[in-house]
Amino acid sequence: MSISQSHTPEVMNYEGSGYKKDFWEGKGRDYEDRVERIAIQRLIPPTGKRLLELGAGFGRLTDLYDGYEQVILLDYSHSLLQDAQARLGKGERYIYVAANLYQLPIADGVCDAATLIRVIHHISDVPAVLKQIRSALTPNAVFVLEFANKRNFKAILRYLLRRQSWNPFSSEPIEFVKLNFDFHPHFMADALGGAGFATKRRLAVSYFRLGILKRFVPTSVLVALDKWLQPTGGVMAYSPSVFTKNVAVGSSPVRNFDGPLFKCPACGSTALMKQEDRLTCGGCGAQWAVRDGIYDFREPLK
Ligand SMILES: C[S@@+](CC[C@H](N)C(=O)[O-])C[C@H]1O[C@@H](n2cnc3c(N)ncnc32)[C@H](O)[C@@H]1O
To answer: Which fold has domain 2-261?
Structure first.
């Protein structure tokens, strides 16, 4: 992985990374995968019109959204989207979009659900990204957000034993490695509220993400315990991962499912004309590539 710099904040660039092979496949993370799936299923409405899967990666979780008529897989990594496309196929049901969360190319009010799982830990300007997401959603749309919790048991213990300098109880995000952040639940609640979301439910997930436990306790037992504990996140969340269900509130663009799907990330115009291998913006003239069924809004064509 590398770090890409443009006129937006820096982006953690997974282009060409082995995220699927090196992190998930045969790497002993069945427990994490299974409990995350349980959490999402508890929070996302089972059916809907169009779901925006933000930071979709190689589409690890996309099968959970089978009840939606259309799913937009959006990610900065073209190569991970190609992996997703190879498995899920081309066609009307899945739309593949290479784009930056800081400059979403999705028109206002065109999605009735969105997810952002294992992604916001790479975001340095959380309010900016949440604002972009909010604009793409219809009133009352559901947005499921997962974030890495700064105030988790392990961090608290390490802090009390003086093996960690940063305070897990203070609300500011902690960047423990370049472009890797843990967030305090209060910070995230404020950021969500400020962007026009009302948090309806919170789950504490992945309490048993410990090598020793995973080695000696059957995965099905850990998953069952996690499932049972997740709802306690509504009262106290000290788990490494927190899932929230948020509803789009406040002034909002009207539902616009049948209007244009994209807007130009450079000028915001929805007048994008499709030619064979590109979209040309009627507002500013910028051209965006469309290659092998993947829309590429990261950088305009020269
Ligand atoms: C840890 S992976 C998670 C992928 C997927 N959500 C999952 O849980 O399997 C993080 C993903 O976020 C994407 N990402 C990070 N920063 C981004 C940005 N600024 N815009 C779009 N995608 C971004 C990366 O390309 C990567 O696919």
So the answer is: Rossmann fold (3.40.50)
